[in-house]
Task: structure prediction
Amino acid sequence: MENMLITSILAATIVSGTPLILAAMGELVTEKAGVLNLGAEGMMSIGAVTAFAVVYSGGSPALGVVAAMLAACAMALAFGFLTLTMLANQVASGLALALFGVGLAAFIGKPFEAAPLPHIAPLAIPLLDRIPVIGPALFRQQSMVYVSWLVVACVLWFLYRSRWGLVLRAVGESPSSAHAVGYRVIALRYAAVAFGGAMAGMGGAFMSVFYTPLWAEGMVAGRGWIALALVVFATWRPMRVVAGAYLFGGVMVAQLFAQGAGLKLDVPSQLMSALPYAATIAVLVIISRNASAIRLHSPASLGQPFRADA
Result:
């Protein structure tokens, strides 16, 4: 019985952290290119409502995920046009994107409120799912959980093992130097922004199609902001981002299991709901107290505009 409880908590933690991993990996690549996009919350919301609408209208879950990625990518490219081509302020534009995306998703999603989707069965990996305790938790999951692990592996390989990953990081460190040796800085930044939007859309699609599965206004519930915080507090290192995402998922799942078990806690329910956010930020702040490490890993040109003819 105890093993089953541990397995259930571990499985729920992984599921809860998956949308954060997807959104944060996209934001990590975007920021490594020197672009600060604060619109993850809005892009995740648009991805969630788009995926739900496509699947509810008869499309497959895979089609819903692709549609969500395209919709969020379009929003990210609009942000890119404002900040990379028109040189608008990245912070202000990102905040506007977040607010616009949340509002637009709420408007589009009105006809779909309280309309559930069929549950999607987990995908078990033969033999591995029979490992005691951790097997069912790790290898009997939704297909998108495995996709998130693949995304992390691809981002790690791209950033630290590929030539174009090195170029992207060079653009984030010194765009003028990268431009001087012949690289198209603006095009590379557009590609990074588009990837970030697509990953945020995938994270939103996971929530509305696989995790819940239903659409409700505000269902992203601040996860886009948490994903942004994870990237910074994890000092732009992918595996720290993953650890932070699962930390958030674990704290959220723990308080849900505590309430479900009927534990009488003499604290307001609002405080319990805020606990995962507060705990994640507090722990990650402690982890990232080394200011020199933050300066070492932070892209030097983050948030700074670049004009090729300047």
About this structure: Strands lie at 123-124, 140-141. The radius of gyration is 20 Å. Residues 2-32 form the longest helix (31 residues).
